[in-house]
Amino acid sequence: MSHSSYEVLIMEGLRGLPTEDLAQIASLVYLMRKRRLQPDAFAAELEALRLYHDTRELSRHEEQHLEAEFADFDQRYPPQ
């Protein structure tokens, strides 16, 4: 299939899709272009996203730990 055939196929496939789907496709196109045209910047963004995800995951675990630690705090340490 030729380059222009793919473009036509993609454009026809986009027609009539909901805005939410188009927004996701636009994000995918942005990432694909960035990966191809700016590989170093793409790698840096990807690493930043991984770090963000890892930090959020750590925060969730810490929050769960603290909730468990203080679950019965009032019973263990009643006001004097």
Task: Report on the biggest sheet.
Answer: none
Helix vs. strand class: mainly alpha
Q: What is the number of E strands?
A: 0
Low-confidence stretches: none
What is the helix tally?
4
Mean pLDDT comes to: 87
Proportion of residues in helical segments: over 70%
Account of the 3D structure:
This protein is mainly alpha-helical and 80 residues long. It has two domains: 1-37, no CATH class; 39-80. It is built from four helices and no strands. It has helices at residues 3-14, 19-37, 39-69, 73-76. Helix 2 packs across helix 3 (39-69). The radius of gyration is 24 Å and the shape is elongated. The mean pLDDT is 87.
Short description:
The chain is mostly helical and 80 residues long.
Descriptors for this entry?
2 domains, 80 residues, mainly alpha, 4 helices, 82% helix
List the helices and strands and how they pair.
Layout: H1 3-14, H2 19-37, H3 39-69, H4 73-76
